[in-house]
Write a structure and sequence with these properties.
Elements: H1 2-24, H2 28-48, H3 50-54
């Protein structure tokens, strides 16, 4: 589980960075795609840590 979460956290960081760069470069379709990946990974992250967040 720890290895999975490490990959999720790295994926969130990378996809957010790519999304910001693509947004600044005015690449709308790619920006939306990388932003969608970020939101999906964020959703998984929040699901896994939901008990800690709501405690």
């Amino acid at each position: 589980m720890a290895d999975t979460m490490r990959l999720v956290k790295r994926g969130m960081l990378v996809s957010l960075g790519i999304s910001l760069l693509l947004g600044a470069a005015d690449r709308k379709t790619s920006h939306i795609a990388s932003g969608t990946v970020f939101v999906a990974l964020l959703g998984y992250h929040l699901y896994v840590y939901r008990k800690r967040l709501l405690a």
